[in-house]
Amino acid sequence: MDAEGWINVHTIASFNRVQKLTRDYDFVRNTIALSSLLEVVEDKVRLAHGGWERFVLPPTSNASPRPQPNFDNATRDLPSGETVQNVSVPHGKFYLTFQDLRQVF
After folding, report:
1. Does the CA dihedral 9-14-20-22 come out positive or negative?
2. How many domains does the chain have?
3. pLDDT tens-digit profile of 23-80?
């Protein structure tokens, strides 16, 4: 969806449930055009009579980088005498240790 609420009809025609009904793009577009709830302009569709604004995501800003995690207090919840290296974390039926994680990353 673009900033004005438009969705490409090709996107809708590619939905699995639509493809099970028909693979005819023109049929999908023409059927959508029959709806009084939707407006179609060229190959784009959106809700008619407004209301599409609530579905548009706010713009993202690439100006500021993602915040980096702060691990300053990462060991504050460890039991007395424990270090990050000897703590094991439950993972399903197994326990992962710091050494296991270090091998993965």
Report:
1. positive
2. 1
3. 999 999 999 999 999 999 999 999 998 888 888 888 776 656 666 655 555 555 555 5
39 vs 32: CA distance, rounded Å: 8
CA distances from 84 to 74, 88, 93 (A): 9, 9, 21
In a domain, 22, yes or no: yes
In a domain, 93, yes or no: no
Is 46 inside a domain boundary?
Answer: yes
Q: Quick check: is 39 in a domain?
A: yes
Note the pLDDT tens digit of each residue in 10-27: 999 999 999 999 999 999
